[in-house]
Specification:
Length: 479
């Protein structure tokens, strides 16, 4: 009953506010603006998209909750607000939690990363671990230079919320770059480096050939919808941004869970579709099949991080697993396969000498593999690097290309080769969670087994791989 009464109160207040640009408007309080559901009365589509996002899920994610609880226990509480400061920032600021151990009792309005946590930011005072300064008033900021006056809240333009301004990336980077607190960690390791990777890439201000060529985070993750419609009822028609903020993660349990199953399923499907749209364009897959003497064959696979503005995977790359599934067929007979992982099977447990996997390897102070982030003292990047140059003459590998070669004797040349991060297990969190397809390619050989159908870089045709292990190589310049 209380929830229903609150909703009715919101509607009564906002019928005039949303529908009139010049009439008398009852002003919203700061406390009301803290609640994303309140914002949804006027910004229904924004709210619906956000409600299925990982921002909304951030403080409900069972992996986050379990890891935070274990971290607090094993560090005797020394982690403090380190995790929850990004996963439920307003709950911390409002004094509802200090360590995230009581999130189940925190009001819904303060769960996750809500509207106010971003749209009330007035300054970014660092580049990691949420150094955002909020104005703590009833002013909400955005990309519009001509916001409608008379809304239930004041609105201001801010370059921090305008995707065409380089400053906006700093707002995202504030939480998406993470430096470990030491203590309790043995070293202040730069554990998550998405923002730093972007800054040095061809998409960022340090690597873009022109200032106008800079592409910020929102260009991929908060794109325009393409349709023109009012952002709020009664307002002018505008081209608005999507608010799914899709990336690589997906919920590990049913989400959203509003009590309306059909609508929840619809929103979850839209979120998944947006995620797949983003990932399907991230990697370019190239396959070359080479016939060898003795009825043998070799397959070269190149993955080009063509579109991501950061390494792939990025973020919590120490917890993520991306690998290549390679299968060669002749008719219905499998001649060779690598990276075939069963549903729910940890990829690192697979007995596969040719497994080609991408992640950050992390180590404790003794140089042994670390399993929890508060144990990490060092890391080695095993990710697909972001592009840092548009110059094809550079052969340093900085164009974001790596490759893998697999050779099998006495099996003959395959008629079909498929290469894909598997649709249901393309990216795996350390718990065995799954993600959508990242990229896939299917290439068929012509009858004479010499012509390759597909996009094959000429420097790979008829050559042997370079590399100490005989299976991996870095391509040279494209021609």
């Amino acid at each position: 009953m209380l929830v229903r009464m609150r909703r009715v109160m919101h509607t009564a207040v906002l019928i005039v506010a949303c529908g009139s640009e010049h009439g008398a408007v009852e002003r919203a309080s700061r406390e009301q603006l803290l609640d994303p559901e309140f914002c949804g009365d006027c910004h229904a589509e924004h709210y619906a998209e956000w409600s299925a996002s990982m921002h909304a899920y951030a403080s409900r994610d069972p992996v986050f909750l379990a890891m935070n609880r274990r971290g607090q226990e094993e560090t005797d509480g020394a982690l403090g607000s380190f995790c929850v400061n990004c996963h439920a920032p307003m709950a911390v600021r409002e004094g509802e939690t200090s360590d995230g151990l009581n999130l189940e009792s925190v009001p819904d309005s303060l769960q996750g990363v809500g509207c106010y946590a971003c749209h009330n930011v007035e300054a970014v005072e660092g580049d990691h671990n949420n150094p955002l300064r909020l104005s703590d008033d009833a002013v909400l900021r955005g990309r519009l230079r001509d916001p409608v006056r008379g809304a239930p809240h004041d609105s201001e333009y801010s370059p921090l919320l305008a995707g065409d301004r380089v400053e906006s990336a700093a707002l995202c980077g504030a939480c998406h770059d993470v430096v470990l607190p030491s203590p309790p960690a043995p070293a202040a390791v730069e554990l998550e480096r998405t923002f730093a990777q972007w800054r040095g890439s061809v998409f960022g201000p340090e690597g873009a050939p022109l200032a106008s060529a800079v592409s910020t985070c929102s260009g991929c993750h908060v794109p325009f919808r393409g349709d023109v419609e009012p952002i709020a009822p009664g307002g002018p028609a505008r081209n608005r941004h999507r608010h799914e903020m899709a990336a690589v993660d997906v919920p590990l349990d049913p989400f959203p869970d509003t009590g309306a199953p059909e609508r929840d399923a619809e929103l979850a499907a839209e979120q998944r579709a947006e995620l797949e749209r983003l990932l399907d364009a991230t990697l370019r897959v190239e396959i070359c099949v080479q016939a060898l003497p003795g009825d043998a064959a070799a397959v070269y696979v190149t993955l080009d991080n063509a579109s991501a503005g950061h390494d792939f995977p990025s973020g919590a790359a120490h917890d993520r697993r991306v690998w290549v599934e390679l299968v060669a067929y002749r008719e219905n007979t499998v001649l060779y396969q690598s990276g075939v992982v069963g549903e729910g099977e940890p990829v690192l447990a697979v007995d596969d000498a040719d497994l080609w996997i991408f992640r950050d390897e992390v180590f404790d102070a003794a140089g042994e593999p670390a399993h929890m982030f508060w144990e990490i003292a060092d890391y080695v990047e095993r990710t697909i690097p972001v592009q840092v140059t548009n110059d094809p003459s550079r052969s340093t590998g900085s164009i974001g290309v790596r490759g893998s070669c697999s050779v099998w004797p006495h099996a003959g040349v395959p008629a079909t080769v498929t290469s894909a991060p598997p649709p249901s297990t393309a990216v795996q969190r350390f718990t065995g969670g799954t993600l959508a397809r990242a990229a896939q390619g299917v290439y068929a050989l012509a009858q004479n087994h010499t012509a390759i159908v597909g996009v094959v870089p000429s420097e790979l045709r008829g050559v042997s791989p370079a590399g100490s292990d005989g299976r991996r190589f870095t391509t040279g310049p494209r021609v």
